[in-house]
Amino acid sequence: MDSLSPYRAKVAAVVVLYNPDDVVCDNIRSYLDQVGVVYAVDNSDNEVSHIESLKAEEGIRYLPNGRNLGIAKALNIGAERAIEDGYDYLLTMDQDSSASVGMVDTLLRCIEPGEASQVAIVSPFHLTDIDSAPVGEPSREEVLTAWTSGNLLNLKIYQIAGPFRDDFFIDFVDHEYCLRLQVKRYRVFRSNQAVLKHCIGTDLKKNKFLHLTLISSNHSHVRRYYITRNRFRVRKQYGKQFPQFVKEDRKRFIAELINILFFEHDKFRKYRMICKGYYDYLIGKAGCVTD
Cα-flanking dihedrals φ and ψ of residue 212, to 5°? Predict the structure, then answer.
């Protein structure tokens, strides 16, 4: 385990579980001693054997939902509990992510004196299967959006900006929240010295297409629905204020369509769910969907 963090009294963590395997327990242990408590919010449909070992871990509070309520709802449950218990910050973690030694301390040190009331989120550098650790990068840089996993969330600002969007269920929850913070003039930083090992999708790969290098995540057809529906909702709401975000996301969307066509399996169902996601965006449907 990591050495005890001097900031444990200030920071809680929430990890969102969904049918976790035994690796998830090791991931949680990578930051358990860096925070005061870990709220394990379980969206699993059925309890699995690995949960019993989690319940026995000191410093973990297991909060079962009994069904999948989505990542946004689970994050809000963790945030509300952390506020009730008197914590200042919340580390938001995916079950497939693990923290490097001292990551939480490094994230906190990224907030310079006098900035605590303006900095809403500090994100770590996400080390994936196709990335390498940052070399020669600035110790921190201001960013427009950040992925949820590994984020250090300022709970005072959370109470002002409001909760994560439950109606998004999953995907683009993080982008929407970061853009909402920017509208309210709060700041989001990435610390390039705090490293998080993060698994994205089921099989992250780099692919060559003409003169381009494309990255395929191999997300499931169901995830493709949420990604499509919610990305267009975010574009509609924030497009005028953040045209660069829309421009970059349009490029990502085209790259995803190419990846699915040439490099991924289950093409028909993925394209069908992309179409369904766009249609549901047009008619204003939100929340959970069944395939």
Answer: -105, 150
